[in-house]
Amino acid sequence: MPGRVITITSGKGGVGKTTATANLGVVLAQRGMRVAVVDADIGLRNLDVVMGLENRIIYDLVDAVEGHCRLEQALIRDKRLPELYLLPAAQTRDKSAVSEEQMCELCNDLREIVDFALVDSPAGIEQGYRNAVAPADEILVITTPEVSAVRDADRIIGLVEAEGKGPARLIINRLKPAMVQRGDMLDTQDVLDVLAVELVGVVPEDEKIIVSANQGRPAALLNGSLAGQAFHRIGGRLLGEVVPFVELKAPPSFLERLLDIFQATGGDL
Amino acid sequence: MSFWDRLFGHQEAENRSKDVAKQRLQVVLVHDRTRIRPGLLDTIRDEIVSGISKHVEVDKGHVELSLASEGGQSRLVADIPLKVAGRPRQRPTAG
Question: Contact B25/A256, CB-based, under 8 Å?
């Protein structure tokens, strides 16, 4: 069976496309899938450093497209997992180095050798975005619960629909449960009301994401990362499993714990 | 707002910034989706009024035209009060 090409895109930059691509790659590979994560951000590559594979790049996506190497030679194997590969972007070229047709051909070749190709799209709606979306079987749109990111996500969802690649599914990233609880952040239902799209997962804000990027070890490889656990649930849903949506709760504050103690003692301190 | 709510930063319902965010998003997305600039609504309203005025008298000062979004559908909503001869329209008292 040919592999599935899933493109992760957002419109707005900095909402977590690369982090999501790396972590979903790890999660699917841990489930025994053959996975290639593809950096389509030519000229501004970053998936390599987030994965911790930046020192092993010899060939890149543009080399493979232009025939300077075979596709297999450009794929860097992640030794932490049996079947996880990175196809890095070229750093010294720009978006015009590759056409939509070339990306489609490249991904057709990838379909023959992997179960999943996860394509990390560049921000924006220009050539780089179109290259990332052209070969996709499915689109995951990622947003944060902020007005600017949600607005851009809506634009992308519309574009994906217009190109016949829809319906896109949504990941809400960097949700802060404490802010949601006090009414200062859009909650999951608010975002879904506005965007009218299917949800595939909600990832809480987690400092471990920055720590893991510092170390080049995706959070899904770590135990005890809340964001990593959320990516595991999303991975299950991508595999067609029915994974219940858990409510993300803020840890109780010092004052709330104090109040709990106070109430438990019947106010008898 | 109770002392405890204040202490824990719980906000009164009308103060929640997420409600402002949601309401603003809904308006801006209707304009984005329909590619209707806010100024275009005024033009459309004037043309509707002049079109209808050829047949019936319209209370021009109270015509309202807005964009709404519901369940993924966008719609143009017009409220066009008519001036009916002999039975003056009861105007809401100013205030």
Answer: no
